[in-house]
Design a protein that fits this description.
Blueprint: H1 2-22, E1 24-27, E2 33-34, E3 42-45, H2 50-53, E4 54-58, E5 64-71, E6 78-81, E7 90-95, E8 101-108, H3 115-127, H4 130-145, H5 150-162, H6 169-190, H7 193-201, H8 208-221, H9 226-243, H10 248-265, H11 272-286, H12 292-299, H13 304-319, H14 324-334, H15 365-389, H16 394-397, H17 402-411, H18 415-436, H19 442-455, H20 457-465
Parallel strand pairs: 2-8
Antiparallel strand pairs: 1-3, 3-6, 4-5, 4-7, 5-6, 7-8
Helix pairs in contact: 3-4, 4-5, 6-9, 6-18, 6-19, 6-20, 7-9, 7-15, 8-9, 8-10, 8-13, 9-10, 10-13, 11-12, 11-17, 15-17, 15-18, 18-19
Organism: Caldithrix abyssi
Main location: membrane
Keywords: Cell membrane, Membrane, Transmembrane, Transmembrane helix
Length: about 475
C-alpha cells in the first residue's frame, strides 16, 4: 500500500514537472537564426497561466533576459514574443519559469547567409550551368545549417531541400501551372496560332523599337500575376522579337522588368494578400492599429524599385539605348542571331514537333482566345475563391470602397489553385480549337501539348532548385 502511494505521488510530481515545460511549445522553429536579425517567436500554450507565459531567453553571450508573450488576437492559443535579436553566435535557450527547456536555438553569423547566393551567381557566370550553380548554393547553405559539415550538407541537400522542395502544395501548383501553360503554348505553336499573332502584331510592331514597346506594354497589361505574366508574354512575344532581330537577352529583360514589378504595385493581384499580411504582422508586432490596405495604397508612390524598374524598362524600349553586354547582344541579334553561340534556352519551343504544321492556316485568334481564357479564368477564379474565403464581417465590408472591396476579395483568393484551373482551361480550349478547325488531329494535339510540357522541364527544374 505504501509503495503504491509513493509511486502515485512520484508520477504526479514528474508529470507536473514535465508539464510546466511541455505546456508551451515553440512554433516553426528555424534550423538556424542569424545575428542582428529580429525574429518574432510564436508559441502554442496549452494552459495560459501566468507561470506558463513567464519565459526566459538565455543568449549565447551568457546573458539571460525575460521573454514575455502576448496573445495573438486572430489565432486563439497562439502567443507571440516581442522581436528578439541575437548579438552573438552560439546556442540560445528558451526556458520555462521552472527551468524546463522549451527550445534550443542555434545562432550563426548573418554574413554567412549571403555566401550561398554569391556562390550560385559566380558559378553561373563561370560555368553557364544554372542547375549546377543552384545546387552548389543549396549545398553551401545546408552545410552552414548542419554544423558546417560538408558531407552532411550534401546529403541533406538531396533529401531535405531538393527532395522536399516540391512537397509544398503551393510549389506544386506553380510547377503544374508552368508545365501546363507550356503544353498550351505547344498546341498554339503547332496549330499556327503563334505565327498568326506575329503576323498580326507585325502590322504595328514593324521595327525593333516598336517591338520592344509592345513587349513592355503586354507585360503591364497582364498585371495580376508574375508567373502568368512571364510565361504568357515571353512565349507570345518571342517569335515576334526574333523576327524583328531583338536579342533574347532584351526580351528577357523587358519581361522581367514588368512581371514582378507590376504585380507588386497592382491593387488587384495575386500578391496583394501576402503583402497585406506582412503589413498586418508588422502592425501587430509594434502595437499599431492601422488599416493594412490603406497603408499599402499610400506606400505605392514610395515603392521605388517596381516604379523605377517599370519606367526604366519603358525608357529602354523607346530609346533603344543599350550598353555593355546588352549592346553586344543587340548587335549580335541584328546579324540574325537572337541567341548567343552555345546558349541553352530554359524552354526550347523551337523543336521540330513544336514548329507550325505545314499547311496550317496562320490564324491569330487560335493564340489569342486560349490566352484570353487563361486571363479570364484567372480573374473569375480569383473573384469567386476570394468571396468563398473572405472572413471579413459583412457590416465592415459594406463600408469599403469598390476598389478596396475588390482588393480584399482577391487578397483572400486561392491564387495557386486558380492558376492551375486557368492553365488547364486554356489548354483544353487550344486543343478544341485546333481539332475543331481540322488543323490538328487529336493525336497531333496531344503530342504538341506533351512536347510543350517537355520544353518547360528545364524551367521547372530551376524553379525546384530555386
Amino acid at each position: 500500500m505504501k509503495r503504491t502511494i509513493v509511486t502515485i505521488v512520484l508520477i504526479l510530481f514528474l508529470h507536473s514537472f514535465a508539464s510546466a515545460g511541455q505546456s508551451v511549445r515553440l512554433m516553426k522553429a528555424k534550423p538556424v537564426y542569424l545575428t542582428g536579425i529580429a525574429n518574432q517567436l510564436e508559441f502554442t500554450v496549452a494552459a495560459a497561466g501566468d507561470s506558463d507565459l513567464a519565459l526566459s531567453l538565455n543568449l549565447p553571450s551568457g546573458q539571460t533576459k525575460k521573454l514575455p508573450l502576448k496573445p495573438d488576437t486572430d489565432r486563439p492559443g497562439i502567443y507571440r514574443s516581442q522581436p528578439v535579436t541575437f548579438g552573438s553566435v552560439g546556442q540560445a535557450r528558451i526556458a520555462a519559469a521552472d527551468g524546463a527547456v522549451i527550445a534550443n536555438l542555434r545562432v550563426i553569423p548573418a554574413w554567412l547567409s549571403i555566401l550561398p547566393p554569391i556562390l550560385a551567381i559566380i558559378l553561373a557566370l563561370i560555368t553557364r550551368q544554372v542547375l549546377i550553380s543552384l545546387l552548389a548554393g543549396i549545398w553551401l547553405g545546408a552545410t552552414f545549417i548542419y554544423g558546417y559539415n560538408p558531407f552532411a550538407g550534401f546529403l541533406y541537400t538531396l533529401t531535405e531541400y531538393v527532395g522536399k522542395a516540391p512537397a509544398d502544395e503551393e510549389r506544386i501548383a506553380i510547377l503544374i501551372f508552368s508545365l501546363t501553360l507550356g503544353g498550351m503554348v505547344g498546341v498554339i505553336s503547332r496549330s499556327g496560332g503563334t505565327q498568326g499573332i506575329v503576323e498580326k502584331l507585325s502590322t504595328f510592331a514593324s521595327n525593333a523599337k516598336r517591338g520592344q514597346f509592345v513587349t513592355w506594354l503586354m507585360g503591364v497589361i497582364i498585371f495580376f500575376d508574375d508567373y502568368a505574366n512571364t510565361l504568357i508574354v515571353g512565349n507570345t512575344m518571342r517569335p515576334l522579337t526574333d523576327r524583328l532581330k531583338i536579342s533574347r537577352e532584351k526580351l528577357s529583360y523587358l519581361v522581367d522588368s514588368t512581371a514582378a514589378p507590376v504585380a507588386n504595385i497592382a491593387i488587384i493581384s495575386t500578391w496583394i494578400g501576402y503583402e497585406l499580411s506582412l503589413i498586418n504582422d508588422a502592425f501587430q508586432s509594434i502595437g499599431v492599429n492601422d488599416n493594412a490596405y490603406i497603408t499599402f495604397f499610400k506606400t505605392i508612390p514610395y515603392n521605388f524599385y517596381p516604379l523605377f524598374t517599370l519606367a526604366f524598362g519603358l525608357f529602354i524600349a523607346l530609346s533603344g539605348r543599350d550598353m555593355f553586354s546588352m549592346l553586344r547582344a543587340e548587335r549580335r541579334a541584328q546579324k540574325g542571331k537572337p541567341l548567343r553561340d552555345g546558349a541553352v534556352p530554359l524552354a526550347d519551343l523551337n523543336a521540330g514537333d513544336l514548329q507550325t504544321k505545314q499547311g496550317a492556316p496562320l490564324r491569330w485568334y487560335n493564340a489569342l482566345v486560349p490566352v484570353a481564357v487563361v486571363i479570364g479564368a484567372t480573374l473569375v477564379g480569383l473573384w469567386f475563391t476570394g468571396l468563398n474565403n473572405l472572413s471579413i464581417p459583412q457590416d465592415e465590408l459594406s463600408r469599403y470602397s469598390f476598389v478596396r472591396y475588390v482588393s480584399a476579395v482577391v487578397g483572400a483568393s486561392d491564387s495557386f489553385a486558380v492558376l492551375m484551373w486557368a492553365a488547364f482551361g486554356g489548354s483544353i480550349v487550344a486543343i478544341v480549337m485546333a481539332i475543331g478547325q481540322r488543323i490538328l488531329t487529336l493525336n497531333e494535339s496531344m503530342n504538341a501539348w506533351v512536347s510543350g510540357v517537355r520544353a518547360m522541364v528545364m524551367a521547372a527544374l530551376i524553379l525546384t532548385m530555386a
